[in-house]
Amino acid sequence: MNRLVRAELRRLFSTPLWRWGPPVAVLSGGALTATAVLVGPEHFDPPMPGMDTEAGVRLVISMIGLTVLAPALFGALAVTSEYRHRTITYTFLFAPRRHRVLAAKLAAYALAGNGYGLIVAVSAAAALYGGAAARGVDVGAPVGTVIGLLASLAAAMTVYTVIGVGVGALLRDQTATLAVLGAYLYMVEHLLVLIPGVGAVYPFLPGGATAALTQASLMGEAAVEVTGSAATLLPPALGAAVLLAYAVLAAGAAVLLPMRRDVT
Amino acid sequence: MHPPHRLEFRGLTKRFGPVAAVTGLTFDVEPGRVTGFLGPNGSGKTTTLRMLLGLVAPDAGTARIGGRGYRDLPEPARTVGAVLEASNFHPARTGRDHLRVYADMLGAPAARIELVLALTGIADAAHRKAGGYSTGMRQRLNLATALLGDPPVLVLDEPTNGLDPEGIAWLRRLLRDLAAEGRTVLVASHVLSEAERLVDDVVVMHRGELLTAGALDALTADGTGLEQAFLRLTGAAA
Fold this sequence. Notes:
Chain A is mainly alpha-helical. Chain A is built from 11 helices and no strands.
């Protein structure tokens, strides 16, 4: 393995923070899905299609898309933590060709984000089938469809980790990065969905593209309640392409931005 | 170890907005000697060192190590070991893990980590988190990081900050030994009484400009100490 990627993985696993990853993944995947399945979407307010329909299964799985802040924040730490603790000085001394450091961080965090996504997907699958069995209801979507949906959400977790690395490299300040990511993912996108007309761009925003993967969105359903019209989602493949484009954009920013900045 | 490297600063200039941090700085630092880089706080020493090490881009001029810019060195961290700040550690990472991260970046073996831990006297504390280290232990961990690549050049910014008298005496011996091995040792300091007992050559900065550069003996030849010589020089410059 590349020396710098190995160093980044060592950096990641040599502080206790990563230990939060697996439990948060199980909460975001398993616990959230179990809750939705056990309550039953048909008992939501307003009522949604039940678990015995494909639309209901898609809706329940799509809720995992609401938890992408966690991998994004985790990715952001790749760079912001280095500035916060001033380790960036040593890092750029040991690898003065800075783009290589950032490329290594992207690779290491993409790997870690992938692992996170896998835990989310596996725990969600267990919760989905376990919860349905416990309630005695059928899962209204073929196993292949469920696997495809969960795999695409797992990949989305990797994408959001990479986006986090890019935003962290852009802003560098830890608190500012956490605030911007949180505000964007939980406020700005949701407000946009609710504004008539402006909602047209939603399918091309990260949240809209994530919802396209499952062809369902709780926010979309809520928007129908409020505005009476649903934001159309892109087809899944196009949604994936849009998400990938954001990841490429973030990775590009991460690699290019620190090149000329003075480290004082 | 690599062959000896001379440091060459030529017309080095940097402004931060309206502040002229360093202006037209030109001097050399020779291998096999300890060179004191002296001047009051804010005189431009740290900015100069950061330009030498590729962390800050100069507006004009060059700083070269054995004829190359830091970023163009084939193995930068095996050529220059640097200590620039009192604490560059993640508080939750142990001293040994901190060294492991940078040893990974270098491709240095685990044995080298144990060697620099022993050399800097912090082997017993290596399993502890760096956040709990005293200032003196942090300085030692900084030095251990700088020495990971067994570099022929050492650049240290205020390395005695936080060291007790015993630690300062230890550092003096260490730097003397390293210079005696043919390494280039550049030590920035604003504490002249300490520098006087440590260095062979001096480079004196004041308000971003070079006041004088040469052998310590020549600067203090009239029998007055470094402090008097420094005050005389800065007085003349004021």
